[in-house]
Amino acid sequence: MTARPAAPEAPGAEAGVPARRKRPGPPPYPVVLALLGALLLVSLTAGVAIGSVRVPPGQVWGIVAHHLGAGWVEADWTRARETIVLDVRAPRVLLGAVTGAGLAVVGTAMQALVRNPLADPYLLGVSSGASLGAVLVIVSGVALFGPLSLPVSAFAGALLTLLLVYVTARAGGRITSVRLVLSGVAVAAVLTAATHLVLLTAERGNQAREVLAWTLGGLGGVRWGTLWLPAAVLVAAVALLLVQARPLNLLLAGEEAATTMGLDVARFRARMFVLLSLVTGVLVAAAGPIGFVGLMLPHTVRLFAGGDHRRVLPAAALAGAVFLVWADIAARTVAAPQEIPVGVLTALCGGPFFLWLMRRDARRSTSRRAP
Is 308 within 8 Å of 245 (Cβ atoms)? Predict the structure, then answer.
């Protein structure tokens, strides 16, 4: 009887050692975008439905459709619920989505510009300038622009901070990224000290709580009239960054490689720093300085979308929106009826993530140096 030939061994497998299973790759990019889009839609619905007064999800969409002119929707809800959905929760949830998307996108680009995985949107100190502008309005009580006085002053502070950072970083007609970052750190320290000084010399003691609530970030008090600006800035920023996706990809390979490929690294970085700082200033003026969103989400998204910024930027925008919407839901419900500033919850998530990221990079650098 003829012996049956042995089955061929798996390539690279040794005797008695099972072959390693190949790790499954990330899902296809269209699937990632579709899942994130569906998750964002669910998150927006939950953000409007969940609160001290629960509104069924079907009724949420019924109110929205009826408001948009859908005549076939029967109005079986009270006027109070319609006001809660349209005037209180919907602008707040949308601002959370816009702010989360913007911070994630800016953080993604900032990490590529400085080639540092620990970079975030507040790298150049614009949040410190925005905080000083907001504190001056709260303490002085001056409201030249009515309800818009606080965001206008915050954005003015962010813009002036950006100009100051560029003036101090410029030497010999050139601006390097190292000097720019160091100038941002120094200016932020000075402005933070000035903010504390203004707060300590305030005449009314109850202003400290209001200032603390703003500096920790929050989405309350937003109205439809103030939502259009951060939304428009987000759309413009994503569009411009997608156009600049190739230079951002080149920077990941190093400055020398990018220069060899024809990129003027210094000029490109200067333009991008201005753009990202302006976007950050608008977002901080609208929602306060909400930390760690722009640090965490880019790294999380790269696990599923890869390193190409043409893929990472749209996915980061969707993931950032989902994350901040759910963070705001938790801020409103964890300690109800008291509301926790959403920046506190993002810091509780981002602090451990930051430490893990530092340890991971340290292990990688150690393994590279090992013989």
Answer: yes
